[in-house]
Amino acid sequence: MSKQEFVVLGQDDAEGCCPALLTAPLDEGRAETLAKVFKALGDPVRLRLLSMIASRAGGEVCVCDLTPAFDLSQPTISHHLKLLKQAGLIDSERRGTWVYYRLLPQMTDRLAAILTRPAGQPLTETAPAGAAS
Amino acid sequence: MSKQEFVVLGQDDAEGCCPALLTAPLDEGRAETLAKVFKALGDPVRLRLLSMIASRAGGEVCVCDLTPAFDLSQPTISHHLKLLKQAGLIDSERRGTWVYYRLLPQMTDRLAAILTRPAGQPLTETAPAGAAS
Known about the structure:
The structure is a homodimer.
Chain A: H1 28-41, H2 44-54, E1 61-62, H3 63-66, H4 74-86, E2 90-95, E3 98-103, H5 105-115
Helix pairs in contact in A: 2-4
């Protein structure tokens, strides 16, 4: 049984989906929760690990296939993977000697939804402020 | 003339859009660039500031209207706003006494696209690994 440490985003939202980010001021609690997920993504090694896991045909990657891509020790890689897992972005399963990782697409779907502008709502003009001055 | 310090994401991509995150391993350079943007989002005060700016009717907010929402000094708020601006998430314009901020939706659009799964490509199953063990 895998130990889940999900960050739960917006379970009590009206649409059961996502806290508003672009359409309403975020409250402190949700900002804290969401910031932890973005912080997990705010590191180049973790982004590379996530992309390697997410893009793998078959949906999962052995940690033994991740480590050689980096000039980092296995404990360091494992630490980064732990942070991605704690953020709810990936899950892991030990089978025999190795741990296998896979994307939890629910979380990336939620982040994508949070960052997507509502249809028909152009928030601002596209020209940079001051461009015409 | 506003001083732009945009992080440029994936301008040389085939579709002129976004570096792959979920469909192909991210290279080191792009991971560094993208991590800076996510790092800017990885703070609850900055997320709240971004949501206040993005959701404001009219599309821009005076810094004088942002500061009172926080138990933080104006220099601290200005520092957080500077980091959001350096990440290409917001822009600013000084008019008279005050600085006005607005969302740069191009960047949130790009992040949303990066985090969106390609159509018809269910990357993994939704049941947590180990749930059946």
